[in-house]
Amino acid sequence: METGLELDTRSKLLKAAVVQFGKFGFAGTSVRKIADDAGVNHGSIKYHYSSKDDLWRAAVAYLYGLLDEAVHKDEAEWKNMSPREQIINSATNYIRFSAKHPELSRIVFFETMHESERLEWLTENFIRPYTSRAIARVALAQEQGVYVDDVPAMNLHYVNIAAAKNIFLMAPEIKRAFDIDVFDDDQIEQHIDAVLKLTMRPENAEEKPSSDGTGTDKNFSNVT
Amino acid sequence: METGLELDTRSKLLKAAVVQFGKFGFAGTSVRKIADDAGVNHGSIKYHYSSKDDLWRAAVAYLYGLLDEAVHKDEAEWKNMSPREQIINSATNYIRFSAKHPELSRIVFFETMHESERLEWLTENFIRPYTSRAIARVALAQEQGVYVDDVPAMNLHYVNIAAAKNIFLMAPEIKRAFDIDVFDDDQIEQHIDAVLKLTMRPENAEEKPSSDGTGTDKNFSNVT
DNA sequence: ATATTATTTATCCAGTCGTATCAATTTAGA
DNA sequence: TCTAAATTGATACGACTGGATAAATAATAT
To answer: Exposure of B184 by Cβ count < 10 A (0-12 exposed, 13-18 middle, 19+ buried)?
Structure first.
């Protein structure tokens, strides 16, 4: 009877939870629907996960694990890459992950709209450490001339991640409004290309890590 | 007793609905909480708005009205502006609006995560017309050399709006993680500066619009 | 002042929510 | 095979949901 391909109840619940929480957020999701999707009795949730909250946390931790895996899978080769190539590699991996698992971004978005215990947990355990490293990485890349350096690293970071994943977050809207499926492989690669072109400093404008002032202008100093 | 400054029940309900739907989405919001916040009996919702759904639609329509007002408030002066200045003007207005009323982006985000009748209504009545015009405007600005032109207008548009409003959507997270209030005026202006620097082509690299030489003046026709 | 309408309030209802309980069943160890 | 533990299933409970109803009150018109 066992095929080895079937998931146990716990795993089935986790997968179904990822999908439901990703679509409807914590408040919009019912544990009964998760259990239905997983094909198990809803009483089992209390057994495998002590509560809806715990199941939500398990889903988040699971997705962050996948993210970490995806973004760092080429880490061993980074030492052979230029700073620019490293950024391209990690950004590409990040965007591909965002396309493959839009649920993570969505779940985080649902929670980041208001204060809650879940947001506190999320921030302490994942967002702050992850974002701190990411912003430090952006600042370094600015010094290395990969990104423009006349913009605060924090703003640049939030623009970067928004640029990367927004189109996948809004996939249902784009599908409905323009009949474009942004999850098509072609669309994904086109988006990667676009984001890299838009966020990175043009290659020929790249400057040496250490010395001089900006090769490209400061002529943008004030726009207000 | 009447001061003239007080809102009537209908308006109080609308304002409270905007806040609640903006924080918790449609599913996460209860009409009783809205009525409590508005300081009225929850039965009044049924009287002034026939249902929770109708109240939600009224809140959305109200916010889109404010958006339209904010983005087009300088429209009369656009004819005196260069294409670049027009983009700066409308983008600045859009970002300021996103900071002042993050509820609209949030409400749309809640709905754009999954298919629903509300998303259909939202798309038909607001998103498609609004986004169509915006993408056409982006394409024109690309021709005019304000944006880079080696990226599809749709991708550029979604990067633009994500860059503009993402930081305000994630305000609670940023506050909690880094104790930064992105709604501070300084932060808002800094963000506007950053977004414009990041999304627009550097001024000195601007190229002539296809035919003749007058690249910087008001030789353009419509905003579609 | 009276009649009519507009608005607000107080309950009620059926359905769903998360969760707790406990019996039924399956699994694993001896 | 027998027993104990692990797991699943069925059911119940109180809280809350959106919506409906009708009585109570306020506002307006005549």
So the answer is: exposed
A112–B109 C-beta distance less than 8 A? no
CB neighbour list of residue B153: distance below 8 Å, 6 or more residues apart: B135, B136, B138, B139, B142
How far is it, in rounded angstroms, from Cα A10 to Cα A30?
A: 17
How close, in Å, is residue A135 to chain B by CA atoms? 11
Nearest nt by C1' to B44 Cα:
C8
Best of B96, B158, B216 to substitute, by most chain A Cβ atoms within 10 angstroms, is B158
Does at least one atom of strand C sit less than 7 Å from the CB of A57? no
Cα–Cα distance for residue pair B76/B62, rounded to 1 Å: 23
pLDDT in tens, B80-113: 999 999 999 999 999 999 999 999 999 999 999 9
Query: Is the shortest CB-to-strand distance from B43 to strand C under 7 Å?
Result: yes
**Terminal alpha carbon distance of chain A:** 69
Task: Spell out the SS3 assignment of B184-208.
Answer: CHHHHHHHHHHHHHHHCCCHHHCCC
Cβ burial of B79 (10 Å; 0-12, 13-18, 19+) is exposed
Q: Do B197 and A151 touch (CB under 8 A)?
A: yes
Q: What is the CA radius of gyration of chain B?
A: 20
Q: In chain A, whose CA is at the least distance from the CA of B28?
A: A27
Q: Which CATH class is domain A60-205?
A: mainly alpha
A198 SS3 class: helix
Strand D nucleotides with an atom less than 7 Å from a protein beta carbon: 7-11, 16-22
Residues of A in contact with B141 (CB under 8 A): none
Distance, CA of A8 to C1' of D1, in Å: 28
Q: Measuring CA to CA, which residue among B180, B169, B15 is closest to residue B102?
A: B169
CB atoms inside a 10 Å sphere around CB A99: 22
What is the CATH number assigned to the segment(s) B59-205?
A: 1.10.357.10
Q: Which two tokens stand for residue A154?
A: 């924090």
Pick from B92, B103, B24: nearest CA to B62 = B103
Q: Residue A89 has which token pair?
A: 């590699």
B186 touches chain A (CB under 8 A): no
Residue B61 clears pLDDT 70, i.e. is over it: yes
Task: Share the mean pLDDT of chain B.
Answer: 89
Q: Does the pTM exceed 0.85?
A: yes
The structural domains of chain B, with segments of one domain joined by +, span 59-205
**Residue A215 scores a pLDDT above 80:** no
